[in-house]
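Issue 218. Parser rejects a valid record. Input:
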Amino acid sequence: MKCDLHIHSNYSDGVFTPEKIADTAIDVGLQAIALTDHDNVLSADVARKYLKEQGKDDKLEIIQGVEVNTLHKGYEVHILGYFMNVEDFDFQNMLKLQQKARITQTKEIISLLAKKEGIKIKLEDIINQVAPGGSIGRPHIAKAITSAGGTTSVIESYAKYIHENSPVYVNRKTVSPHDAVEIIYNAGGIPVIAHPHDIDIAEELIKELMKYGLRGIEAYHRKHSPACVEYFSTMAENLGLIVTGGSDFHAPNLASGQIILGKNFIPEWIYDKLVNEKRLIDMA
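Output the parser choked on:
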């Protein structure tokens, strides 16, 4: 089955609504997608409701997904989750903690921007950039800075303010990747480490996270070269983990307008492996 298992909507830092994503996925020939917003699971139900209302629910499967942002030894580690029970108490509590951490971080950055740089933005300017209940983050802060005249572009906002060496930047206090993996697994989900090429200690961390329930590696990713895909696919096979993949779609390419949703090559067997892994977890 043709699928894309890593997509962001306007419930986090994507620009498309879940409805637009669903229509686009059908247009490019996908049969299944996972909406994996950061620390948020609201978009999947929105997409499913839309497809049902449009009589298209037989054309596209919406897999419940999430991407949990964590920090570990100075590295950003993103944990994808699939098929978990989103009503699970510990899972819900984790998302609440993550959302609270996002608000706290944003408020602290807003305060420092005003005190140290004279740039005045409001929390509402940031919250209004996402769908109701959505996850705010660094892209939204960067856009608010630019809109307030603090910089001439979002890229400049990142370069000046959205990084650890900036005097106005504050790290978010997140859950650990170990907790994220364990909570997703205990909620009946499939925890997968996202785009591991970004993490220098990936192999060591993957082996460590397996003790907490890690079941897969996202080998197929738009930033992964063919050699990188082969490297992580081989690692997954040697460790007895499944392989997943996705476009990590956020927005059309600024220069070309190209929509990469479903464009990067993901073998059709990945869907079958994912579904089979869910069966194994349910049987355990």
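Fixed in the parser; the record now loads. The mean pLDDT is 95.
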